[in-house]
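Project outcomes to date are best conveyed with an example. Our students and postdoctoral researchers have been running inverse folding experiments weekly, and each run begins with a structure described purely in tokens. The record below, which covers 171 residues, was selected by the lab manager from last quarter's runs and is presented without edits.
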């Protein structure tokens, strides 16, 4: 994955923005399913077909930049809110974005197969109160993605070393 996948203003309704890699419709209002086993409530990755991002602004234009990364990017101070979620990408997945009910959408390109990490950075979410019907953009989002397979951080026991070699060595 290289280059910026999207950089522009997205018109949304109900603050709904989806990243999808299957023929799914995106967020359907089922918060329990999209946020299953998660502690955050801004980026739902519980559905196997995509990720739901809840924008602060109910409707209107929100600035979005989507960029793939070769590894974990540094955290930048300009962002007020930052959430990360893991996703599992099936073979042949083609990423696309979509606003509520597919009102606006566009292709983004292929994703690496396997476990990936999605980081959503946001600022201006509280501006929705003053800018809900403003003609200018009041909230900004940076969505970053990178391959993040499982990792062995430390091996201190002989038992763990054995199993890593026995099972992990098969792959």
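After processing, the design step wrote out the following sequence:
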């Amino acid at each position: 994955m290289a280059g910026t996948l999207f950089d522009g203003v997205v018109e949304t309704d109900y603050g709904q923005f989806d990243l999808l890699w299957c023929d799914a419709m995106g967020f359907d209002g089922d918060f329990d399913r999209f946020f299953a086993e998660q502690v955050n409530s801004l980026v739902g990755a519980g559905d196997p077909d995509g990720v739901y991002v809840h924008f602060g602004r109910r409707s209107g234009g929100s600035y979005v930049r989507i960029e793939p990364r070769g590894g974990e990017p540094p955290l930048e101070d300009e962002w007020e809110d930052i959430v990360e979620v893991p996703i599992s990408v099936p073979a042949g997945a083609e990423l696309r974005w979509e606003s509520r009910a597919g009102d606006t959408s566009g292709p983004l390109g292929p994703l690496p197969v396997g476990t990936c990490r999605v980081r959503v950075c946001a600022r201006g979410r509280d501006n929705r109160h003053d800018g809900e019907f403003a003609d200018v953009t009041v909230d900004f989002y940076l969505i970053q993605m990178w391959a993040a397979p499982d990792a062995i951080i430390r091996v201190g026991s002989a038992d763990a070393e054995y199993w890593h070699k026995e099972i992990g060595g098969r792959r």
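The beta strands are 6-13, 16-20, 43-44, 50-54, 59-68, 81-89, 94-99, 105-110, 114-123, 140-147. The first strand starts at residue 6 and ends at 13. The training component of this project remains on track.
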